[in-house]
Give the backbone structure.
Amino acid sequence: MGVVESVRAPAVAGRFYPAEAAELVRTVEALLDAAPAMALPGPPRALIVPHAGYAFSGPVAAAAFRALAPWLGNYRRVLLIGPAHHVPVVGLALAPHAAFATPLGLVRVDREGGERLLARCAGLCVHARPHAPEHALEVELPFLQVLGAEARILPVLVGGSDDAETAEVLEAAWDAETLVLVSSDLSHYEPLDRARAHDAATAAAIEALDPRPVGPAEACGYRAIRALLPLARARGLTAHRLALATSADAGGSSASVVGYGAWAFC
């Protein structure tokens, strides 16, 4: 995997979530306690989880992680995959780090799993720079840490890959001991009524396991979602909606909102 940069430092602690450890634990625990208790029919094989600041998307993300909590012992690794927002990427970028840091400590990277992915996936490269400022993967980690997850992560950012390249990475990583966690928000910066209708249509497509309606206007993580849905169908999985909301529901302006959704695939 190239030169190891031992630890990827937090980029958005103090902005997207609290930078002080005790406050972060209290925040995540409060979000999990307030989340609806959704009983799934079995262990989720994949999740879609939003990645904005906790003040906005935290309740929706917490719904996904609360549903995941009873099943955490099933996984040795989490393929954590989301869009590269800040640094352009050709294909997909695997982080070279041995661990990702948050205020709660280190989350270890599955180095051997990363080597296997690199050997099998032509569109996957090792690239530290896109990961350095990126929030999409980082904000999911404190939830896993507070829940006591022992699984290692495979942190992958999706850039200008085509659907086949992204699907190749998902399929190569997705064995019985791996949870696929797709990090994505939904519609961006539309008026509230339009955003709700837009996100409802996207939710219907996700729940039908139909990737065709899902593009960049529907979700910033559309490439990973489009790769996930046909694979979920092929594996006989069903999408269970856990939460659907907007930034307006968290007190933001209704004139321009961001949509958030969470799903479990069982």
In short: The chain is about 30% helix and 25% strand. The first helix runs from residue 21 to 34. The first strand starts at residue 7 and ends at 8. Helices lie at 21-34, 54-68, 111-120, 141-146, 163-173, 192-207, 222-234.
